[in-house]
Amino acid sequence: MSRSARIRLFWAAAVVFAVAYTLACTGLPRFGTAVHPYGTRAVAAFLRQRTAYVVSSVNFDQRALDTLGEESILFASVLGTLVLLRRARDERVGPPRAGRVLPSTRLLGLVMVPVTLLTGVYIVAHGQLSPGGGFQGGVILATGLHMAYVAADYRVLKRVRPLAVLDLADALGAGAFVALGFAGLIAGGAYLQNVLPLGTFGQLSSGGLVPLLNAAVGVEVGSGIIVLLASFLDQAVEVRPARNPGSGGGT
To answer: TM spans, by residue (predicted)?
Structure first.
């Protein structure tokens, strides 16, 4: 395709997009109005689905397909980073240098690691009841594990960071979200439609499919971020340029 043809195609698409965007904006409620149709319907839906936290009801029930897209973006980002930062032929892996940490920092880290991990689990498990959920809880879980790096050094982090298991958990978390969506199709409904008992409003077992989707996202986000940071940390701490074989230097 010639340059002029690409420019004409761009302007044609731009005009269509501009018209569609303008029409969509003119159909929105006026700014500052007391009438919010989407908000009213969202509140009614979360009460009907017995999900006490309306944001989780929107993310994991009413618009769960959008959340699947967001989770897939993170999974693709982690996969792309692993491919880009893989060890090249002109690089070698050297032993990490021991770090020096203040005793007060080490003590605080040892205390905060289990507290942070427990908080992350709590946030994931209670995502249908209170602010939080799989995305927020997964980030907290990854942060808690990396406190071992702050409170000790990189060697300690490597011992408590089973990358092979976390790689698998990242894929399983993403796959579990996709698989849970097929439950609605198998039951004769729509993809990601809730097919589980709704439980009692305000209880941990409420929300139907929402807690399971939250758990799948928590596993995928937590594992994915740890694997993502591992790629950058390995590059910064362990990977070094290979020695030139023809330099004649010593071992």
So the answer is: 68-86, 107-125, 137-156, 168-192, 212-233
CA-CA distance, 220 to 77, in Å (whole number)? 12
* Phi, psi torsion values for 142, nearest 5 degrees: -65, -40
CB 66 within 8 A of CB 55: no
> DSSP string of 20-73?
HHHHHHHTSPPTT-S--HHHHHHHHHHHHTT-SSHHHHIIIIITHHHHHHHHHH
Mean pLDDT for 14-32 is 87
Give the global pTM. Answer: 0.78
| Residue 194 falls inside a structural domain | yes
* DSSP bridge partners of 84: none
User: Domain limits at 173?
Assistant: 3-245
Q: Is residue 251 part of a domain?
A: no
pLDDT at 249: 45
Classify residue 74: in a domain, yes or no: yes
Q: How far apart are CA 251 and CA 245, in angstroms?
A: 11
Rounded Cα–Cα distance for residues 185 and 214 (Å): 20
Q: How far apart are CA 181 and CA 194, in angstroms?
A: 9
pLDDT-derived band at 29 (thresholds 50, 70, 90) equals confident
Q: Say if 111 falls within a structural domain.
A: yes
Q: How many domains are there within the chain? A: 1
